[in-house]
Design goal:
64 residues; mainly alpha; 0% strand
Amino acid sequence: MALLASIGIMLVLFGVTVLIIGGTRHFFPFVEEYIPEEFKKPLSIRFSAYYLLAGLLLILIQPV
């Protein structure tokens, strides 16, 4: 069970990181040229919400 909790925490941290990158891309469009094409979709604000929700769900289902 600790493995799922640690994966959940890592997903939440990754989601926050992707949210920061996505916010930077949204408010400062000139950084788009520094991000490779294959990483543009996974580093978006929409995907950060998925990472955060998946991480919070993994933390939530832990038994007490």
